[in-house]
Amino acid sequence: QVQLVQSGAEVKKPGASVKVSCKASGYTFTSYDINWVRQATGQGLEWMGWMNPNSGNTGYAQKFQGRVTMTRNTSISTAYMELSSLRSEDTAVYYCARGLTPGPSGSYVYWGQGTLVTVSS
Amino acid sequence: QSALTQPRSVSGSPGQSVTISCTGTSSDVGGYNYVSWYQQHPGKAPKLMIYDVSKRPSGVPDRFSGSKSGNTASLTISGLQAEDEADYYCCSYAGSHVVFGGGTKLTVL
Asked: Which of A33, A35, A45, A58 to mutate to test the interface with B (most CBs of B within 10 A)?
């Protein structure tokens, strides 16, 4: 069965960077885009961007341009999301998600368990 | 890249039907047949309930249905059950990006 398993919770200081991993199993990693979505406590879902694990191509939400980098290691079927220049407003649960179909559509049927990133001095 | 507009809350009694609206623009909801809906219970990851405007993934009850007219999409839940109480988010592909709605809290009275 398809699984996305994320790395554990992180606590970071303002101005630092965080790198969250998402290990995929149960399907061909390079066949489906990986998307990243975050959710601050008590707030809604916010799409951050996508990465094509086959080509490495990426697309980021305007809000995160210049601060987010999405990469992958195909040999271990793992995607990464790095967010830099962290501020308190970046405190949130970060999810990786995979679509129902290979193309971009916003239809995320598989989700990681979420990684809580806390930014605090 | 503005968020889609959803009502903050809706409510209904068991057995009734409720509809949640999701308003976007011609650049997102109105421009593509890639609207999806997610259900989220507290402390859980979102669950895909509707995709491509009106399709249901395997395992989602047919009490959940989706539609779209112009720039507004809708999720209808018929035969409300207690376990339907959750937050619901709409989502639309918008060409170069994806956008979510602000979320709607459904209360089953």
From this structure: A45
